[in-house]
Design a protein that fits this description.
Blueprint: H1 3-9, H2 11-14, H3 16-31, H4 43-52, H5 54-75, H6 87-117, H7 123-149, H8 152-168, H9 176-179, H10 196-217, H11 224-245, E1 261-264, E2 269-273, H12 280-296, E3 306-309, E4 324-327, H13 339-347, H14 356-370, H15 373-383, H16 385-389, H17 392-404, H18 408-422
Parallel strand pairs: 2-3, 3-4
Antiparallel strand pairs: 1-2
Helix pairs in contact: 3-6, 4-6, 5-6, 5-7, 5-8, 6-7, 7-8, 7-10, 10-11, 13-14, 13-15, 14-15, 14-18
Length: about 425
């Protein structure tokens, strides 16, 4: 049957209005949670979020529809034509149509996510989409072979349910390795993409299972040797993926640090993701003045040579030790940098369990030195009800005024003493 003629009667094409409506519903149900991707767009992050839920549905649909088509061809007597038509040639066309149909729906969801984020697809998105196409193909092969052997009236719903549950159910278990070997799409964050180990772990078990089905029930006659070999192949794929993922947490080790970075200035040089660097010049100027004041007041020993935004650093943790700092510079956030958080990160944790009420004195002094005391006080009012309604605010401000009138050397000694007291049970009553 010619390809375009087959399209008119293929189960996947006939079901397209239903599957298309269902996938559109899934997309628009999650659309509201994708709007924030536009603030700091990264294509792989937006796409992985958008297709995370639809992929198990698409795989289940691919298996079920392929089973229906195989049963339909059996009813038409196609498999009894013998050598007149190659069995492989007969199987490829309906499987290809299933994959193209479901891949088109997934491509539409991908395009919608990229449109919301305001970015174009890149090589990392194409890689992710390639993983999806491989998985859809493997599931379509499995469904087609089952539909050839067993009537689709019961094989199609059973294989669809088995595929959906097989992909989705492990995500809710505490066996983290199982999260990564079923073909479920992992969620990327900014600057991340699928790594080679993630790709292998995601596709190898399903591809090996499809190969096992081809060997076991693909030929007209089922042979014991082929069945035994198929079991070895299926088991090897799963064991191989387990060997890769057995020490992973629920978050797989994605490839990191892929987002373009823009740097500006000197002493310190400030680096932010290019996608969120609109205010980089103003941020660098502010940090330059702040770090100079912090050094002059002995809160830091010297000005860092580089300050990197946390979204493009590794590890993604604040760090103000040494010559290179990592801070949350709020790349892409409309409300800008939280200078209170910067002051907190500058002071850091002087010990493992400091007295927080005492540490507020040192942190407010650092914030005052940076010129962001009001930001820190506003943060403290939000975080502490006792500070907001009690007399601790007046005590804190009175102490700031007192210390502000001391000579510079005494101010430096006072700051060091506050950090020491915070680690020794707090300020004396």
């Amino acid at each position: 049957m010619r390809f375009f003629s087959a399209l008119r009667t293929h189960a996947a094409v006939l079901a397209l209005p239903v599957t298309g409506f269902f996938f559109a519903y899934v997309f628009f149900a999650t659309k509201g949670r994708m709007s924030h991707f536009a603030a700091l767009p990264w294509p792989a992050e937006a796409v992985s979020f958008a297709i995370h839920a639809p992929v198990p549905l698409a795989a289940a649909a691919a298996a079920g529809l392929a089973a229906v088509e195989a049963t339909r061809l059996r009813a038409l007597g196609v498999w009894e034509m013998g050598p007149a038509r190659s069995e492989l040639r007969v199987a490829v066309q309906p499987i290809l149509i299933v994959v193209l149909t479901l891949a088109t729906l997934m491509a539409a969801i991908t395009a919608g996510a990229l449109w919301i984020a305001g970015v174009a697809p890149d090589v990392y998105v194409l890689h992710l989409f390639g993983v999806v196409v491989v998985l859809l193909t493997a599931h379509a092969i499995i469904g087609f072979l089952l539909g050839r052997r067993l009537h689709a009236l019961y094989s199609a719903p059973l294989i669809s349910i088995a595929v959906f549950v097989g992909i989705s159910f492990p995500l809710g278990t505490g066996s983290f390795w199982a999260h990564h070997v079923t073909g479920a799409i992992g969620l990327m964050t900014f600057g991340e993409a699928y790594s080679l180990p993630m790709t292998v772990a995601a596709v190898v078990p399903t591809v090996c299972l499809a190969l096992a089905f081809v060997l076991a029930i693909g030929p007209r006659r089922i042979r014991a040797g082929a069945v035994a070999l198929s079991l070895v192949i299926a088991g090897s794929g799963l064991l191989g993926a387990y060997g890769i993922t057995r020490e992973w947490t629920s978050f797989a080790p994605a490839a990191k640090g892929l987002a373009p970075v823009t740097c500006e200035g000197r002493a310190p040089e400030v680096c932010m993701p290019s996608a969120g660097s609109q205010d980089l010049g103003d941020t660098q100027a502010a940090l330059s003045d702040m770090t100079a004041s912090l050094r002059d007041n002995a809160i830091i020993a010297k000005i860092p040579t580089r300050i990197t935004d946390i979204t493009v650093s590794s590890p993604q943790l604040p760090d103000t030790g040494g010559e290179r700092w990592t801070l949350n510079l709020a790349a892409g956030r409309p409300d800008g940098v939280s200078w209170a958080d910067v002051a907190i990160d500058v002071v850091g944790m002087p010990c493992e369990t400091p007295d927080w009420n005492t540490l507020h004195y040192g942190t407010l002094w650092a914030a005052r030195t940076m010129g962001v005391a009001d930001d820190y006080l506003a943060w403290l009012s939000r975080e502490s009800q006792s500070f907001r309604i009690g007399d601790s605010k007046q005590q804190l401000l009175a102490e700031m005024d007192r210390v502000g009138g001391l000579p510079l050397n005494e101010q430096k000694l006072w700051y060091v003493e506050q950090l020491r007291l915070s680690c020794q049970g707090g300020r004396p009553g």
